[in-house]
Amino acid sequence: xxRATERVGxxxxxxxxxxxxxxxxxxxxVPHSANADIIFEHNNKLxxxxxKTQSKISxxxxxxxxxxxxxxxxxxxxxxxxxEKNSLDVFALVSLQHRNVVFxxxxxQSQLTIVDxxxxxxxxVKNIENILESLS
Length: 136
Description:
Elements: H1 3-23, E1 26-29, E2 38-42, E3 45-54, E4 64-67, E5 90-95, E6 100-104, E7 111-114, H2 116-121, H3 124-135
Parallel strand pairs: 3-5
Antiparallel strand pairs: 1-2, 2-3, 4-7, 5-6
C-alpha cells in the first residue's frame, strides 16, 4: 500500500479513536493484520470497529461511497473480501474533508453511499452513543 494511502487510513483511525474516547473508557488502535482497526470498551464490553476512510468524494460523484470489504491491497482473493459474519461490531466511515465520522452497524453489502450533507452534519458522538445503545 502506498504511503499516502496508508496516511489517509491512519488519519481516519486516529479521528475515530478520538471520537470513541469521548464515549468509551478504553480505545485501542490495533495492528493492520487484524480484522478490526480499533477495539474499544463501553460498559465493560469490548467492541470491534473497522474504519473506512475517504479523503474526498470520488470524481464524477456528489456523495461519499465506501467500500465495505477488506482492502484489495492486502492480498485477499477477489471473491473473498467480505468480512465474516460477527467478526465486527461497528463500521466507522470517515470523511477527512469534513473531519467527521458516520458510525453504522455491519451491513451485508459491498458498498455504502452517504449523502454529503449527512456526512458533513452528522453528530458523531451522538451517533456512536445510539449505536452502542442498540448493541446493549
